[in-house]
Specification:
This protein is of the alpha+beta class. The chain contains three helices and 22 strands. It has a five-stranded mixed beta sheet with strand order 2-3-4-5-9, with no helix packed on it. The radius of gyration is 20 Å and the shape is globular.
């Protein structure tokens, strides 16, 4: 019976995380089609899975199956202007994150079969021209078993590394230790729950907000509280797996596929206004360094128009009830 209760609580938490997306669908807002900045011209870029952008350069990596390389792309033409080779045989590269001028973090964090003892991140130099580097790889371990992940976040002020897992109902944000070791595994600490099926994410320059994307939508959270600021539909893409925030706050999205376009998408004004609001006086609790810290799974979309609150709660409740109903039927004896 205790196991049943745990499973029911897990579904309920997942329904709470999914609710903001159901709320967004109920609002009836049309997705922003975005502005095409360029399309990847390099035939070697066929599964763009991570994205970083600054100035007139964009950096990307292919999804699993490629060798370890990062492409530097001219944002004006889409042409590749440099390649950094950093590893011969990574297991499942899924994401990039910026780390100051001329460097990115590469995230070998995919684990579809949940079988890896550890995942790896590597800080590598990038820029015009080709180079081969041999950088120290950082091992990260989850305290309670492996997980699949496709998003890497690096805080713009502290440089702290975070991994966002990819689960159906609810993903999780995990923080690496403030000081990582390159000669021993680094234990991740749970920060909290977020929406499910996250394929990428990025911090805004203020370090107080983070945007996570799924295949079809984007959601902005406060950080480190992980309270939902708002969400919106993204343009239709072949397989949307990349999102980046430039140093001036512009949001870019990319997709897998040959000649895939990179789009600039507008953050809805309601979300921009909420992000610009002053930070509450009581400071948030620090990001935990171990998995023993509790996760705050409470998420609320405070930016929804007040007139729609009643309908939004009905939709969120229906989603939760349906999920609980499916689980209850699965638990009944046959």
């Amino acid at each position: 019976m205790a196991d049943v209760r745990r499973r029911l609580l897990t579904v309920a938490a997942g329904a709470a995380v999914v609710a903001p997306f159901a709320i967004g669908l109920a609002s009836g807002a049309e997705p922003d089609e975005g502005e095409v900045l360029f399309s990847f011209a390099d035939p070697e870029i066929v599964e763009s899975s991570g994205l970083v952008a600054a100035g007139d350069r964009v950096w990307t990596v292919n999804d699993s199956g490629d060798i370890g390389r990062v492409f530097s792309v001219d944002a004006a033409t889409g042409e590749t202007v440099g390649v950094t080779y950093w590893a011969d045989g990574p297991e499942d590269v899924e994401a990039l994150a910026p780390d100051g001028p001329g460097h990115v973090w590469v995230a070998d964090i995919g684990d579809n079969t949940a079988s890896r003892d550890s995942v790896q991140v590597t800080r590598v130099p990038v820029g015009d021209g080709d180079r081969t580097v041999d950088e120290e790889t950082i091992d990260l371990v989850y305290p309670d078993g492996p997980r699949d992940a496709e998003a890497l976040l690096v805080h713009p002020r502290t440089g702290r590394v975070h991994v966002v897992t990819k689960r159906v109902l609810a993903g999780e944000v995990w923080a690496a230790p403030p000081e990582t070791a390159d000669d021993a595994p680094n234990r991740l600490g749970l920060v909290g729950q977020v929406v499910g099926l996250v394929t990428d994410g990025a911090f805004f320059p203020d370090g107080r907000h983070v945007v996570l994307r799924t295949y079809a939508r984007a959601v902005v959270y406060t950080f480190p509280e992980l309270e939902v600021v708002g969400s919106w539909d993204l343009p239709a893409q072949q397989q949307g797996e990349g999102i980046a925030v430039t140093p001036d706050g512009e949001v870019l999205v990319s997709s897998e596929g040959t000649d895939a376009p990179v789009l600039s998408v507008a953050v809805p004004p309601r979300i921009e206004r909420a992000m610009a609001a002053p930070t509450p006086t009581p400071s948030a609790a620090p990001v935990p360094t171990t998995a023993d810290a509790p996760a705050d799974g409470t998420v609320q979309d405070a930016a929804d128009p007040p007139a729609r609150h009643a309908w939004n709660w009905v939709v969120g409740g229906v989603v939760g009830l349906l999920a609980l109903g499916v689980l209850w039927r699965s638990l009944r004896p046959h």
